[in-house]
Every structure is written in C-alpha cells, then in structure tokens.
Amino acid sequence: MSDILNGRGLSLVPKTDVKQSMKEFKTDQEVRWCPGCGDYAILAAVQSFVPDLGLRRENMVFVSGIGCSSRFPYYMNTYGFHSIHGRAPAIATGLAASRPDLSVWVITGDGDALSIGGNHLIHALRRNVNLNILLFNNRIYGLTKGQYSPTSEVGKITKSTPMGSLDKPFNPISLAIGAEASFVARTIDSDRKHLQSVLREAAEHKGTSLVEIYQNCNIFNDDAFEQLKNPEVRDDITLRLEHGRPIVSASKAVRQGPRGLEVVDRASVREEEILVHDTHNPDPSLAFALSRLDEPAFQHVPIGVFRNVDRPSYDERMAEQLDQAVADRGQGDLHDLLHGGDTWRIN
Amino acid sequence: MTKQVQQLDRVIIRFAGDSGDGMQLTGDRFTAETAEFGNDLSTLPNFPAEIRAPAGTLPGVSSFQLHFADHDILTPGDAPNVLVAMNPAALKANLGDLPRGADVIANTDEFTKRNLAKVGYAANPLEDDSLAEWRVHAVPLTTLTVKALEGFDISKKDAERAKNMFALGLLSWLYHRPTDATIKFLEGKFAKKPDIAKANVAAFQAGWNYGETTESFSVSYEIKPAKLAAGVYRNISGNQALAYGLIAASVQARLPLFLGSYPITPASDILHELSRHKRFGIRTFQAEDEIAGVGAALGAAFGGALGVTTTSGPGVALKAETVGLAVTTELPLIVVDVQRAGPSTGMPTKTEQTDLLMAMFGRNGESPVPVIAPSTPSDCFHAAIEAARIAVKYRTPVMLLSDGYLANGSEPWRVPEVSELPDISVDFATAPNGDDGETYLPFKRDPGTLARPWAVPGTPGLEHRIGGIEKADGTGNISYDPDNHDRMVRLRQAKIDGIDVPDLAVEDPDGDARVLVLGWGSTYGPIAAAARRVRKAGGKVAQAHLRHLNPLPANTGEVLRSYDKVLLPEINLGQLALLLRARFLVDIISYNRVRGLPFKAEELAGVIQDVIDSE
Asked: Tens of pLDDT along B48-89?
C-alpha cells in the first residue's frame, strides 16, 4: 500500500521547491464556457489543487479531445494540446510513453471518451500508461447543442431523439473496471474537497487513472445530478467509498447478499455485516459490483475511489526494455548496424 | 563426367510453388548467395495475401523472381529464363510468362492425378508434348530428397519439407553459387532442432550433388561478378532500408525515434525491424488501431521525439484527421505509406502507385503536406532520412510513399559511411521569443523557413497550448478572425512551397532527345531499363525521375516544357499527370497499367518507341 500512496506515479516528474499558487496556473485566455457550467468549478478545483503537487509547471501537460470540456487545456498555464475528437488518450499515450518526466493529464467528456474515442480509452486503461484521465460526464452532447450521449438515460428526449433515445448507456466506471483499469474513481463538480482529494490520489497513482466527474450542463441537461446535490436527499443517496471504511450513506449500507451486493437500510444491519471497502483488492469483481449499485439511475450512488491497485505502468516497462537492450548488447551503433548482416566488398 | 560450363551475362530465375513450399525462403537464400558472389541483382517476391490458401491450387502459388547479372541491372526482369515449378499449379500459373526455350525444372512427384485435376490439367503436361517449346527437366525432387535423408532421425513429413533446399542446392550447382553461407544459415535457423538442421543441410548438398551427376543437366552456367562502384555492399529490401533510414534519421537528428503503428501488409516489416533495435533508444508502440498509431506518434513529437507512423493505403485513410492536426499544429511527423493495390482492401500483397493524390490532398481544409517517393529498394534508406530532414526542419508532417514492389524487392546496396549522412539536427526553443523578452510566441516563424519554434514540455517559461482550432498568427491563441485565417492558410502553404528540394535531373546521353520519359517512385527501374533498350536500338529519349512530389523541384516546369513530348508511365490512372497538367499546362502522355505488378522494361520500351515514332 505504501508503494501506491507514496507517489511513484510522479516519481520521475521534477519537483519544485518554489511555492506555487493557483494564480500561476491560470492563463490570460478568457474562459468561454456558458455561465453556470460545471466546468468552471472543476477548472477552479484543478487550478487550486495542482500547486500542492509541487511539480514543475513546465513538466505538466494537459491533452484534450473535442467537446466543451476539451477547451480545458487553454486555461491551464502548463503545456497543453487540444487535439481531435476522441483521440486524446492515444496522443497522450505517445507523449507519456516517451516522456516519463511529465505529468500528463487527459481532459475528456462522455461523448469524446465513450463514443468516438471509446476504443482508445479502453486500450489506454488496459495498458496502464502513466496518465490521469478526467472524464467530465454531463450525460449530453453540449458543443453540438444537445444530442443524447452514450451516458444519457434510455428514453432521453433530445433534438436527435424526439421520441426518446433507444440505446442503453455506458456506466463509465463499470467500463473502466471491465478494462481492468488500475485506478478508477468518481467524484462530482459541486464537491470541491472531494474532487481535489480524488484528483490528488489519481495524480500520485502510477499508471492510468480514470476519474469520472459528474458535471452539470446547465444549458442542455440541467440538474442531471440534482439528487446528489440536493441537501435533503444527497446524504442518503451518496455511498462514500473510502478505503478501509464501511460503505454507507447517511441511511443506507452495502452488504454482501445471496445474489451479490445489496443496499439495505443502515438501521437494519449489524455493523460487521456492512461491506468494508478495499480499493487495493487485485480482483476487480467487487469494484465492478460496486459500480453497478447505481442501476437504475441514482437511487444510491457510490462516490469515491473504486479501485486503486499497483501494476507496472506501460511506459515504465517500455523504458525497462530499452535499458535491457542496452545492458544486453550495448548502445546502438549506426555504423555497425548498417554494416551488419552479410556484406561483401568491391574494390 | 566433365560437364560443359557456359558463360552468361545475366539470368532470370523464378522459384514457384505452393505457399507452404518455402519458395520465399529459397529465393532469399539464392539471393544471398548471389549477392555474396558479387553479381548485381534485383528481386520480385510475389505471394498471395492468404497465409495458406488450399494446397496445390492456383491461388496458393507463391513465387520469387531473381534477376542477376555481370553488369548493373535495374529490374527483377521481365521474363524468367528458368522456372522452378514445385507443383502443377506453379507450372500453370507461371507458364504464360515463360519465353520459348526457357528451362523448366519441375518436381514430378507433385504431378499426381489429383494435383493435376486441381488446376484443370486433363493430362500430365510433363508426359505429353505440350511443353515442347521449353526445355523441361523432370526431377522427382521429393523422392530424391526423402531418399537422401534416409537414416536421419526425422519424420517423413519433415524430410519432404526439405525439398526446397534440395532444389536450392541444384540451382546453386547450376549457377556456381557459393554455399557456405546457406549451410551456416540453416544451422542457425534450426539451431534448436539440430536434426532438422542437419537434414536440411544434407538435402541442400544432395541437390548440388544431383546436379553434378545427373544427365538431366549437361551444362552449368557462370555469371561473372558485376563491376559495381567500390565499397561495402549488402543486399537489402525496401522495408529494411526504410527502417534503417529511420534509425539513421533518429541518430542524425539527435532525436529519439517513436514509432506508433498498427500491423498492415505490406508495411508491417518496418514495425518488426524497428522493434528489434531498442538499444538505439527506439520506442515502438503497436497501437489499437491506425488512428492511435499516428496519434501516439504525434503526441511523442509534441514531446520532442522523431514521431513516425507506418501503414499502407487503407491505413492512411484512417490517419488523415491526425495528419491534418499535425499540419495545423506544425509538428514534425513522418507518415510512411507502403502503397498497395486498392481501393479499400484491394490486393494487399500487390503493388500500386495509387495513393499520390490521397497523400497530396486527402485531408479536410487546406492542408499541404510534403510528399517524397523513393525510387528503388535501397533508396528507401535515403528517402527516409530526407523525409525526417524536412519534417524536423519545417515542423510538418511528411508523407513517404513507398510501395509493395519496393518494400519486398531487394537489391545490392552500397552501404554508406555514417560520415556521408547529413546532419539533420535542429534546436528546440529554449527561451522566450517575444519582443518583450518574456513572452513565448509558439507561432512566430523563422523568416527563412517559415517554421515555427519547437518548444517541448519540460522547458521552463515556454508553457503554451496548441491545438486543432485556428490559431492567431504569432501567439497561437484561438482565433476566428477572418483575415488571420486567410493569412494562416497562406503561411502554411508558403512554408511547404518553400521547402528546399534539389532540381530535377535529366539523363539524356546524346543531349538531343525530343521525348522525355518521366516517372516517380518505384517505376524508376523499369523506366530506366526501357530507356536503355530504346537507346541501344538507336532511339533518342531523355529520362527524369521525381523523388519530391510536393513541393516539386523548382525546374520541373522548365524541364517538361523543353521537350516535344513528355511520357509519364504510372501504376495508377494518371495521378501525377493530373497534377503536372494542372500546374504546368503541359500535354503529358500517360501510360497506365494497374495490374498489381511492376511495369516490364520491354513493355515500356515499346511505349517509348511508339511515342518517338509518332513525332
């Protein structure tokens, strides 16, 4: 466990002794999201949390795809690459795999990551490249003005689905755990403290971390996560996932039932019956089962780190192979390479 | 028995058999022996895309043609002098290419009733007079091999499989090839199965001895070594040369090589080759798809690597959007397209020059990209370095158009010394470039090259954002300003138009030809060989070959306009002709065949002569 939490994910990224502030991470660019967009809260949370990582600003890179959230890099005073729709994980993979001294962040949305870029996402997760993927999930297409997304609920009425959408949504957490991601978490734009604590753990994780952030689109899908924000019900709905702690909300608890996990009234169970969360369980089955607890939507929603396991990162293994090749046969020599094989001389 | 030895100046041999008969290996080994002996040579492997088509059928025939000579040659040859046919399918599939009087060495053991029926032979052609035009050597290769391997501790099947080495031994005797290297090769290849190694060596030697003793072959042939320019030579295929060129480019650019690639025929061998050279600091990434391959290469380029992606036609279609991103973010990137027959899946193992217009224009928006095409297998080495030079100097994606013919074909290559290779290194930006001395302007251009600075993450003070949205000239900030967009479109075009490329050279020995034959890419060999034939017959023809397709050499228009007629053979329906006609208003005569095969020299010589005669 100490290995996981002592920051090996950032071990090769140069640190700075100079105290940094949120201001240094802001750019001079005018932020162009709609007033009231959840993205503002996430941006502010990230800008105010990254100085605490103590990394050199020049060694941080934000890579994004296309969509509202993908404008994010323009507002971070680090290196940034606003790329093309769905491809950010692939582009970031090349960058992170060739530059272990960088802290690479992918900013994506539910359409970008799960529709057009679904393939890159699952492959990045299985490879475990040293990336932090922040998936802003607002369950709608925003930048194209309001079509349903791969996380929209069945029956969603939108411009492209006037009689309701037909396709079953992805649960991003289930998908990521299914791809055996080594770090999977969920948080919400309105809870800055939780958001920042999850991001910190993600940053320090070695390998790919996937953080789903529930983000409100107040124009096309307002109040999609209202129950999780409404003070009257949110504490009953939200199941807090904390390593080593029983999984409970204010009024409910999770326990192992005869056919899998079940959510029951907290008052009706003995303390020792309540499932204790283990983020480091190498078997993803239980984390997957936890991710299924919010089916159907929002009766009870697990929030927090589902899974955080130690597994070699792709870039680390790639670098090891290069080192091994040099150790075995010495550094490559171009003359020897070209003159190798069967040669003959003509005088 | 003393056998007659006859001197020849050149020979074309085609080994043909079932996909499982090991014809490519046999051809490779004969090529290696021939290279070692010092002949000039050129090879043309031709195999089905199916890994194992049904045995004994026409679609399952795999062949390997080798042309070798005592002088310099330019092509794998039009028509074989010798056909080695391992089964009836191989005979039937190749007989049409065989000129009268050529030798046919046929493995009689495979000419069974069943095998003959499979390919529609009603009677055994070895036993009637249907092959009277040719000199047929009927040899029971399988039986002889199995007999020679009696007493070896191997299965009958393994013994039969060694028949290709028996055939190689026989041909090696017939053409006085050196044999030590093949024996060493077999011992190495089967190092883990010493019995198989010994059996294959024995089959190879038995084949040689059979040639010496049998009455079926009364003559053997000598082809003297060729007088090539002094130097160290090795035989090399286009894909291997291209991979070596990329490694050399990485060394000469002082940038680590990052290859993002997805397996595809006929480009995969470049991925395989580069994966073997990790001690050069090369990272090879087998991506989940073509898009991720090029995306990762571009991401690595942003981080300061020499980013490369390798693919073939259908893969380029998938990469187009990312190449467009590289155009607008102005990052170096090398896109290798080993062209194959299309459209769509087409014929994966067959060659074509049909991706030129896709390389030029296959992206949304105004997105100019430099295009380079190597002309021979060994030229792939230098073309790769040239592609890298342009990519890093001008911060642009570059399309490198090889093709299936170059990729799998091979020829002797005079190995260059490292000191002969150009230094293509460039400097990263390290300090602010704004007038205030503090600001970094990622799109402030070098006035000479119009290239923008390349500041890589990790450089303090130069933090900046780039992306696919239009950028303000200089600052790189998002801009929707109409005049700025017009300016940026023109600047990106001007940068590519201004790339320094050498003038187009014209070869015209007499200096008074009125017809120019022009080509690009892999047609160099057949065109040059055809021009030689025409001149030998008294015709006058000038020849020029384009290596840079975008931008074109500055003197291209002048060259085209200085001849009465310009003939342009292409293995497409006239793609370069379309570009040149539009650009220079020259009435180019196209000659087009799209058969998945290279041109034949004889065919082109006829076409050139026709154009001369029509003057």
From this structure: 888 778 889 999 999 999 999 999 999 999 999 999 999 999
Among partner residues A29, A342, A347, which is closest to B477 by beta-carbon distance?
Answer: A29
Bridge partners (DSSP) of residue A78 are none
Q: Are strands B10-18 and B82-85 parallel, antiparallel or unpaired?
A: parallel
Q: How confident is the model at residue B1 (pLDDT cuts 50, 70, 90)?
A: low
Residues B74 and B5 sit within 8 Å (Cβ to Cβ):
no
8 Å CB contact of B279 and A330: yes
The three-state secondary structure class of A69 is helix
Between A and B, how many residue pairs show a Cβ–Cβ distance under 8 A? Answer: 205
Best residue in B463, B466, B477 to probe A by mutation, most A CBs within 10 Å?
B463
Residue B463 has its nearest CB partner, among A58, A90, A94, at A58
Residue B461 contacts residue A76 (beta carbons within 8 Å)? no
The number of CA neighbours under 13 Å toward the Cβ of A99 is 33
Say whether A94 and B181 touch across the interface (CB within 8 A).
no
- In terms of Cα–Cα distance, which of B80, B129, B82, B79 is closest to B105? B82
Determine how many CB atoms are found less than 10 A away from the CB of residue B535: 18
pLDDT tens per residue, range A175-189: 999 999 999 999 999
Strand order through the sheet with B231-237: A343-346, B231-237, B410-414
Residue B358 three-state SS: helix
User: What ipTM was assigned to the predicted interfaces of this complex?
Assistant: 0.96
Q: Which of A307, A283, A293 is nearest to A255 (CA)?
A: A293
Give the CA-trace dihedral at B295, B296, B302, B308, to 10 degrees: -90
Q: Which residue of B has its CA nearest to A318?
A: B283
Q: What's the rounded Cα separation, in Å, for the pair B191 and B181? A: 15
B228 to chain A: nearest residue by CA? A346
- Does residue B270 sit at the A interface (CB-CB below 8 Å)? no
pTM of the model: 0.94
Q: Point out the residue among A14, A64, A94 whose CB comes nearest to the CB of B260.
A: A94
Per the CB < 8 Å rule, is B295 touching A83?
yes
